[in-house]
Amino acid sequence: MTGIEEFTSQYGLVRKIDAFGYLDYLKSNPDAPRKHGKVVLVTADTPLKASRGEGKTTTTIALIDALNARGIDAAAVLRQPSMGITAAGSKGGASGGGKASLTHPELIDWGLCGEMAAIAAAQNLLVSFAEKAVDEGRLDTILVPRVSEVPSRSLRQIAVDRGKNDVPERVVLTPTCELMQIVVLSRSMDEIGRRVAAMIAGTKDGKPVAFGEFIDLWRITNMLADAVKPALTETLNGSPVYVHGGPFANVSLGIPTLVAVEMACALHDVVVVEAGYGADAGAQKWLDIACREYGAQWPSAAVVVTRASTWRDDPSLSWRYPFHVQRLENYDIPTFPLINLWEGEDDQVDSLRATAAELDFREPIVGNLFRDGGEALAPQLDGFVAALGQSSSAAQFHSRKGMELVENVKWIAKSAYGVPEDRVLLKDGFTESLVAARELCREAGIAIDDLAVVAVKSPATMTDDDTRPEDERTVTLKKVEVHAGAGVVHVNLTTSLTTPMPKIV
Amino acid sequence: MTGIEEFTSQYGLVRKIDAFGYLDYLKSNPDAPRKHGKVVLVTADTPLKASRGEGKTTTTIALIDALNARGIDAAAVLRQPSMGITAAGSKGGASGGGKASLTHPELIDWGLCGEMAAIAAAQNLLVSFAEKAVDEGRLDTILVPRVSEVPSRSLRQIAVDRGKNDVPERVVLTPTCELMQIVVLSRSMDEIGRRVAAMIAGTKDGKPVAFGEFIDLWRITNMLADAVKPALTETLNGSPVYVHGGPFANVSLGIPTLVAVEMACALHDVVVVEAGYGADAGAQKWLDIACREYGAQWPSAAVVVTRASTWRDDPSLSWRYPFHVQRLENYDIPTFPLINLWEGEDDQVDSLRATAAELDFREPIVGNLFRDGGEALAPQLDGFVAALGQSSSAAQFHSRKGMELVENVKWIAKSAYGVPEDRVLLKDGFTESLVAARELCREAGIAIDDLAVVAVKSPATMTDDDTRPEDERTVTLKKVEVHAGAGVVHVNLTTSLTTPMPKIV
């Protein structure tokens, strides 16, 4: 593909691509050769616990290997895993496994080219500048949190300037911060600058003050110069894999950067996008935030990964997997169940297929992807490839912009979690939190109902108690937090951790 | 030079070199072609304030450009500046300026390849593991501080787990932490692992507990995989410049990594090493710590940089510059005064030369290096090149290992600051701090008197009050802190900031 080499540099064992530059080049050269790849969304069943993956990355890698083996030019776009969590041992890496692996998983798992660290440093510098603004009398309350790349539960609530002013603060994991969201959603460094300028640093006499009022934006954008470039690596079989953007779809976006996906679509025919945690988390965010509100491409097909044990071993939770598959089909996205077998589960294939048939699923794709990689998938992809060929990526969807915030959350609860609006409850304090957030936005000249809603929740639950019968399930809203720069508003469900900062386990 | 290419990878606009691997290769291949370059130390007058550089990096760059222009194969080894301080605007970058610049100063100043950030993440992970050890009852008090790449004075004293346990902690700047010292001083990843294992995590019932007793060392060394590789960039004139190791010679080591210097010596005939702040800081640390205790190469020549204004505009401080020059000459290091002129100072050359002659200096090198770069130096280097050719790098020096700690500090005060031992005073509390440190070491099975002393002080002063007459100058010792993993013991002078964490200015 002409052009892309000029925007590509070697970085050790991976390459980094100036995606902003390449997409600009395509815009100013409409006749330049390019592809118009279709997006395939890889999502999963809701996991039984946060630390237990279903195998989305393994599936994504096996899938592109299998497609390339069939002569289809396919690439994957992954999010960068959190080094802190990996290093701490709280969670494995996120670079596949066994035959469905990357050539250099250690690079992806252990900090890549410093992207996350640069975002952390820039977000922390914003807090330092906010402190300076307090000293100068421009601010009296800081609203942006500091971040850390490594988990430490004791950082959830801290006091700084101990012994003098004892200012209460909180620290969040880097991938969940507003600056990471800005990097994920922005299509140029100028857009990043504008969004950073619009971030609400804090308040002065109750009125919001944006960073644009007192910082030099170049200090932040300089820090991000390399972090905005997607990394390119490959699978053991040589299929291209782009890595860019942060994890944790339960408490933030948890999707790859939009530019990484758009660049991949210009370079390949099929682009497999992995979104974080279950379909209620990353897939919901890809569809309802990235596609509806930020112009990302609607998927032409979806693969929903589960493990035999996740799907069937807890009967009270077995409703979740068919719910996810059906939900995506209802959007006219051809949706393929994929059951990722573990050692010793080969004898379950027939029974799994029978269950899938009872549920009116498409023919499921079943295999031990760790053991067999893409070879396990290749013979099962006829239906998938056919569906992909027929589907149109110009699917029908519309923005929820302007929908009143609670109505918007109720719509999410209904469409993504299966809970009707009369069972969306408001916890004590939620209304006050919403009124305060609405007022903050009004003072900042933003319509809160125009912000995209980020549901902040546990990765392992969709409702207050997923084990209850369907007609008793509820969703309770706890609080609201505005990320004006990213253009999103967080709504915390009661299942969420207020501050995503796990303990080392 | 055969061999080095195999250890070199492109990282965007710079290259990274597996120095550990290359030095191992040379060790196992004694007949492989290599050079035995001589080290030239570039140091400076004590600056008037921390944020005001004399021009060491500018000089270093101009010097190697001038030597290469004369056909001498010369390279520089610089420390990586602190992105946090640069981004915050507290201090300029450290990549030269004007004609004496690097091709891509922005890379050096803005995070390089994430080395500092990886060290920060690893040091913070150590604290997280120490917290886990507290939960498990292995520790009751944590001694290692968290670190931050960006300055924020409010972090000097913090409380974590606010509202529950309110545990007091402190945060220090990344370049000053023990893990950075370990990276600077170690010659293999195994050595880093051993040194991390020997770091004292904290105490249990008053007894020291080392990290080796409870962490997986691979988690830390994996995080550092890229950070241990020096970066290679070049000057505008194409002279090679290696960048590796952290700044801040006043409160830590502030010298480049030993492996970067050793690798450069195997590849070039002259290796110009820049050490931080004044000769009382970085040069003292290079000579008395790196050379005496860690086997680094004794300099074959030194250049002491000053500005006309630093040297002469405050008569009460004008003793410092000749003191530094004379001190290095006393070690038989041919020492060249270099006066880095600023705009509008060209007419001072004759008077500066006259003053230098009165002081019995070698013929000083004088020029506006920002404006003229190496061209300003080249015609003045005959004496320097001749001295370098005559000097032997096998100079006489000896370890201070085993010297009682206070005696050792008194020796530093006398040799590096000009204060005799009867004017080295102990502040209230110093003795208790020393007794506690000595006991901690004893319990850990370490002889405190075998550790290398790191004087922790203000960058802009050598004594309690440099403006007083020589026979009234004192040095007061405040406290002692052991970095058992790095093999050093910090002794804070009263002029030091307890925690190096500046405010944004």
UniProtKB/TrEMBL annotation, chains A, B:
PROSITE patterns: FTHFS_1. The keyword Glycosyltransferase does not apply. GO terms for molecular function: formate-tetrahydrofolate ligase activity. Its EC number is 6.3.4.3. InterPro entries: Formate_THF_ligase (IPR000559), Formate_THF_ligase_CS (IPR020628). It comes from the Bacteria. Transmembrane segments: none annotated. Pfam families: FTHFS. This is Formate--tetrahydrofolate ligase. It comes from Bifidobacterium phasiani.
